[in-house]
Structures
1.
Amino acid sequence: MTLFRQFIVRALLQDRARTVVTLVGLTLGVAVVVAIRLANASSVRGFETALDVVAGKTSLEIVGAGVGVPETQLSDLGWLRDYGRVSPVIDRTASLRAPNDTESPVRVLGVDVLRERPFREYQLVRFARDGREPRPQELLAVLLDPTSVVLTERFAGRQAIDLDTPVQLIVGDRIHDVVVRGLLLDEGPARVVDGQLVLMDIATAQLLFDRLGWVDRVEIQLYEGETADTIADAERAIAARLPAGLHIQRPARRGRQVEKMLAAFHFNLTSLSYIALVVGLFLVYNTVAVSVITRRREIGTLRALGATRRMVRRLFLGEAAVLAMVGAGLGLPVGWLLARAAVQLTSTTVNALYITSAAAVPALGAGDLLIACAVALPLALVGAVIPATEAAGVTPTAAVRDVDRFVRYHRFPRGSVALAVLLFGLGWWLSTQDAVGGLPVFGLGAALAVVFGAAALVPALLDLLRRVGRKTLGGWFGVEGLLAHANLSASVSRLAVSVAALVVSLAMLAAIAIMVGSFRETVGYWVGQTLQGDLFVATAGRAPLGPAVTISAATEQRIAAHPAVTALDRFRSLDLPYGSDDGLIILGAGDFEVLLEYGGLLFKSPADGRAAMRRAVGADAVVVSETLALKYDVAVDDRIELDTPQGPRPFEVLAVYYDYSSDRGRVVMDGRTFARHYGVQRPSGLTLYLEAGVDSEAVREELLAAVGPDHRLFINTNAMLRAEVLRIFDATFAITYALQAIAIFVAIVGVSATLLTLTLERRRELALLRLVGANRGQIRRMVVIEAALLGMLSQGIGLPVGVVLSLILIYVVNVQSFGWTIQFHLPLGFLAQSTVLIAVTTALAGLYPARLATRLAEGGGSEVIT
Amino acid sequence: MATLQAHGLRRVYGRGDSRVEALRGVSLEVAAGEFLAVVGPSGCGKTTLLHLCGGMDRATDGTVTVDGVALGDLDDDALTALRRECVGFVFQFFNLLPTLTLAENIALPLLLAGVPSAVGAARAREGAERVGLAHRLAHYPGQVSGGELQRAAVARAVIHQPALLIADEPTGNLDSDTGRRVLEVLRTLHRDTGVALLLATHDPLIAEAADRVLTMRDGSEVPGPP
């Protein structure tokens, strides 16, 4: 232990720059893994927390098939009171405009106050000050006025809203004036969704949300004590008595549905986060390698004085372990901060694709510390094994005399080539395997196999470079090129690890760029083909999950009356449970005749999708998205069973079409078929087809003017919507830029650290060069050429590997995770740019080692001669 | 005029308590074609003297002139250029670059001076032939014997036809037989090229071969044996 303190800890403290760089790398690696874990947890937990608190003491709930529960059925459900207290609820989202003109998304809960009390604890500020809870009548008095709403103290405080202040609630295209009549204390339900909750009477909510005659669900709080058994018994008993079209479930099911929706997204994100660990692994390798190289003489002395090989190996493994522990300790808080930033960044993604809000990042616990250590420690030890073994191999005499640095040229590494071939074969086999539980486990396994295969191929390729290329480089860069090639050639075994790490990182960069580029091209083409309408009308506050907000009849009439509008497609959508395990698909409805005449779905099968679609007009038939077809193994001519208010009904699948708007799977039926099964519902959006030659921008202005100031609509022209789609796409993939930054970071730090190692190792040779007449510029140029060579070599291997990886990502991982067909597209411009960028950054990364080299060359003269 | 002239050379390392005066005012001259041997016990300042004379280090006091150029007036780049053009070095531990072949090692001073690689290769071949290494040109330093390494180092030291050749214990790391052969090569080259040779050694046999001997002790010149 004393030896460890003297020999390792003291050295780490003395060589601060190297210690700090390694710790930064390790910290970053651990932090990224922790951050993604926390961020993922927070997006699911955000929904679950909201669910738990809003669900309150509700044990069970009754839901309808997508459209909710008709009030007419409520009177038939009187028997539910035999089991517990029953309460209907409207649960929607809207937008609230405060007097200061800021708009915030809010969750609106319409409750039957008289029945609600037992379910949730509402603490109104004015009663709490008197030290008591409001009586139902008092709460009713607050809410009875149809313009009354209750906000949370937390939200009101933030927006500077006082009691009795008028505010505006924007529901769909309508703007409603309401007055804040109560404030909920900052506890219980009021803390949900960061306080962005609006409470109102259920009747008012039905009116506001166009839900007259419907409630979203009926909640039940059992009379008996709530044990797992009593709930399960009641669930079974109630299920047996419910009429067709209604289902009983536990509130937690909605959470599970969200979790399932996000599972693939999170799985992929987590897998990518492990790339960051490559940085850590690689830096530990370098640090310990430098440590061994700079202290060869000391190690030799230790060995001469009686230290065993095992002691020496343990010393250096111990160094790695110390670094890992400190890195893990620092990585945790940094990870938490990163997670907070990532939640803000990915919330665009999660929001755009899935849910409306993510919760605050959960606090760090002992479990996180354990995970951080479990990640960092083995990683560091693996990174340190090679240099520690090298240290153990230092002989006392050789190290003391320091004459053992003669270049050892190895034979062609046949073993690693065989391993590479084996790994590539394994990758190919894994890529042909099916997903496991909807997750691309084998697909990512295939990617991993290819990455490791490429890493195993590196020594052979370096050996190849050693055999060829000296003349070329000498020709291009003169004596500096010759020396650079000679130096790199002589260090094949030392370079193999560094170059392999660089290759992995650059291959990932290329693969992600190709995948995202291909996806963007595909979506661009799809948008071009599919978005044929001239104007698209949507409402504000449209939530990606949960009931869609609708367009009022008045607005629709005004729009349809515009003389330039030749056709109009009303579409509506709702979430529908599908499949055996908590899947939630989207059921959409549109006017198929209009779509057939004006629109342009891109069909995957059958060949003549339009003819198939024509047969679906008015019939109990549907077209499905390819995501649904892949996820639920549905093909043309199959029959699928959809939940309807009348119970499950069969629908014939006539066509499969490409759809990139959601990975949940979408079933589309003709508007008339929809109305027959789900009742007449207001549309959630309109697609307008205008007369030929009309200026759609002008029509848009006229329509906005026609709907007037008391309604609010978003009308997009075709060009605006296309741009918006691509904007959302880019926001969705914003996180991949972070990964690209990591790849560049690895390249810079990797090259710099590798050359630092090599430079320290050959200080005598550098001094000798100076003595035989090399000037400082020549030495600097030599090191910079080495740096650029390393970068270009890694990029040269990384690019083709990246292309292979992208094929796996596109054709295996993506299909298994999301079910999208992506057309392969090589973003040549980007790849060329990144190659130049890598060449320049790696050359720049050589500047510091180059400076060190000239310094060492100055100071090493006496070493050469003595 | 002598190829190498040094007057009153002093070299002090460190300060205060750790101050060490390695050279205490040494003067010498070596004419073209002359062979001066520097002898003395370890630590007497031989190597320091060679450093200063070869432009590898700068004197605390005193002047050095090589081929008519005062080294004290040169900046680092000019000093490097002078080493490259006018001085050749042979060291005790061979000091070839392990990453280059013997041919590339021998040609290195020419390549660093910007001579085209084809010319460098041809001159390296000639040099290797002169020291009996023509069959080892494509070998790396790790693949040849100590004597061959030192002969390659000698060939490298004179490939650019320097005015001054500095050799520091060139046979110190070789057995006596091999050492004799290396010395033979050195003397032949010295005779053929007319280079001024400044050589430090412990070996009385080598010193005997010199035209003159300078004996040192504790950083100063002392009268040597007659």
2.
Amino acid sequence: MNAVALGLDRARTEVRTYFRAGDSVLFTFAFPVIMLLVFSTAFSELPDFGTAPGGAVVDAATYYLPGMIASGVLLSGVQGLAIDIAGERGDGTLKRLAGTPLPVASYLLGKAGQVLVTGLLQLVVLLAVATLVFGVDLPREPAAWARFASIWLLGMTTTSLLGVALSRLPRSGRSASAVIVPVTVVLQFISGVYLPFSQLPGWLQAVASAFPLRWLAQGTRSVFLPPEFAAAEPGGTWGLGAVVLWLTVWLAAGLVVTRLTFRWIRQDD
Amino acid sequence: MSPEPAVRVRGLTKSYGSRAVLHGLDVDVAAGETVALLGPNGAGKSTTVEILEGHRLRTGGEVRVLGVDPARADRAWRARVGVVLQSSGGDGTSTVREIVRSTALAYPAPRDADEVIAAVGLTAQAGQRLRSLSGGQRRRVDVALGIVGRPEVLFLDEPTTGFDPEARRQFWGVVRSLSDTGTSIVLTTHYLDEAAQLSDRAVVVAGGRVVAEGAPAALGGPTARTPHVRWTGADGRLHDVVTDEPGAFVARLTADGGEPAGLEVVRPTLEDVYLGLVGEAAADEGGGGPGGGPGGGPAADAVAPAGTGEAR
């Protein structure tokens, strides 16, 4: 079987394991949905939760939906994979696979497939909750959805690679959550997911701008918020060029680090 | 049988920093042979096996497994080598059949998954998740994963640790049937009966060197198996005499009509021989180590009939 076919089989196994294991289902899959429910409900008494400089108004669910979608992309890739792979390194799974002819590329393809499938399911659940529970109006123009698909896929690829790259960071499978989760939580707070980005101090915006979530969230806002809200972004536009640029830079960084550092096991000690 | 040896190791050395754990190991495994690597903890068995598996880099020496340097393992070589690690890991959410089938896909000519599951005696558990299996059953899954690719060489690293006696016997049957089909097997174990049951040859490693090798029944040479005659003399001293003719010796001993107290004739077991070998190696190292000669009897007598020698 070639590396791609093996990767597809691995993806099937990975998705099955993901839902059977349960931990990721709560902390990675359901988390953005839970947060959408919490924020949308908490601010449901404010019909004009978000007001654009031009006077356009949205409720809390509409405002938070793009942030939670971006957050889901970050969690599925970075948090899900980094913890998952660190766990597999710690419990001996990688060492076992190292003794088989399975190519590393197939293994990583399987992980990517798992992120894509679970991320897509998560997206569907988020959109369903937003529309069915909170009556959020989704964009109707195909162009907006095409733009969303590109940003989402670019984001998924980037965060998946970063997840693989970061999986080397925890010293053990047990410590993986403790090392990775604080990183993703802080990023969500400073990148305009939980708190409106335009209300953060300039220096914090600058810090957040060095990381991909800020750009991802800005990209998803450009799809789901009325065009008037572009004026609230730093620079007064959606800045899609910068969104694509920064996500691509992080994608390249993740690719290089993965290529250089991913090994089944350390042979050198 | 291929003329190429399954494993050829010459002058293998390995150091972790300044600490040398292998001091020039030589091991051969012929095609189709089963070799047991024996040795105390820290002797270098697992390091050796990990180097052979391509999971660890050596410091020096020459290593060939199926003619290939494991440090340059590629997919084609991996497809010919089966590895059963000390612990196989995983979160246990897959079923036996799922994981065996999925693993089989990576090999060019795998065995049928259900056939392999049957071979390790898990047909009844094929649909169960790994985490619901007993330790012995999970270990058999590990073996199934190690053999599903039809390996020419199989590495088994302490495969039966934690097994109950019945599970161990069943497992031995699995290994024998693999050996019968021509698979070369390298087995590390702490159980000498396991080595005696399964291996054509045992290699005793201590202090990073091979201290003895041979058929398990011949390990340590003929003198190591010479029977001991022990008894307690009238003065209360323990006597321990090594002799090739224990019957004749006992006949002479009892010729005066006296019945020696606590008389016994003991043939050293493989374990006695092994402990003797490992103890000698430890003494050569200048360390303490397990002491005692073969038989572990207390040293005694000064008078030895012809053809006998006093135990140390």
3.
Amino acid sequence: MIDKRVKDVAEALDGIKDGSVVLVGGFGVVGQPQELLEGLIVQGARDLTIVSNNAGFGSPMLPKLFATGHVVKLICSFPRPTPPIFEELYKAGKIQLEIVPQGTIAERIRAAACGIPAFYTPTAVGTKLAQGKETREFDGRIFLMERALHADVALIQAWRADRWGNLTYRGTGRNFNPVMAMAADLTVVQTRHIVELGELEPEIIVTPGIFVDRVVQIDSPDPPPA
Amino acid sequence: MKQLDRQEMAARLARDIPDGWYVNLGLGLPTLIPDHIPEHREVVFHSENGVLGMGPVPPKDRIDTWLVNATKQNITLLKGASLFHHADSFGMIRGGHLDLCVLGAYEVAENGDIANWATSDNDAVPAVGGAMDLSAGSKRLWVLMEHTTKEGRSRLVKRCNYPLTASCVVKRVYTNLAVLDVTARGFAILDIAPGLTFEALQARTEARLHWPGAPAHHGRA
């Protein structure tokens, strides 16, 4: 029998190693798994590389994770407004920042999910974010080569899940979650609701359970008004 | 001479968006555009975080906090709206499916270069968001910005001084003083603020201007 449900956050995050690359779903706070981030602080893995569209932007837990000193690098498109702790660590040279265009982050993750090692895109050609990257001309236009971004762990927030790990999302809480769920060796989901197998209509499932390893039910609050 | 105010600038641009276009709007001035789309005209607004059919800001008592736009403000969804994930959303952008993207900018150069993401090479904490994807990927990129800085320096330049967002991509610029197409010969005036002469506009513009339709070419849609 397949049952990906685990009893709590500690079990959901068990075994995450030092040096892991961790994809964190969410756009600002919407769709970001706060309780899993809190659990990662407790779990204590060090030398983490975090991949998140923002460095905070309303997120209570991401700045707290930075404050532990356990994050050595952030891969991010828009680290503003910048949490003071991140700015402090960045200016002190204690955290690296890789700025990646938002679509390039999404596509690097999608490529990793689909077994594509690299791809070419016109995004960022001729800009300082292209420095040191290979370019190639196709049909008269210059493209930049970008590498896939595979991760050890993905932390995902879903709205409904079943014991097979099939997922749906709420509103714009979907954002990076489905594509991140596909691109990690260990995909951990916090979900507001667990439903019986068969209760999710096959037509509405956004993330099929094949991409999911562990599911924990959390009564997390709705995002605050913004 | 009458300069356009911010709402008038947005309204002037909105006039040129035809029925049926899919449009992404950048931060700042472009966010004023939806209020000026005539009611009978169906224009579908896209938000990078996975929305087509974005509606207006909800009244305070009817907010769904699970719905936000690219600036993380709460929004509503129109009838016919759809939600999708980030890779699909940027596939729409990068695959050239959007008819139009309107961005603000610090500078636009006469070859269509745009600088709108960083004001220097050593910003404290740099941030780019989706600006480079939108600039490189949209079918059409229009810029809506003030013609000059507060200090009076032209934002329409020969070469961008600030770090580039993308090269040779801007098709048209709407300012408080004029509407200009980016052409092989540089900026070509399509429309000019009432009472403003070519010479007065050129005096406020670093890049060289052309006026192919001069002088009776006002009100072009």
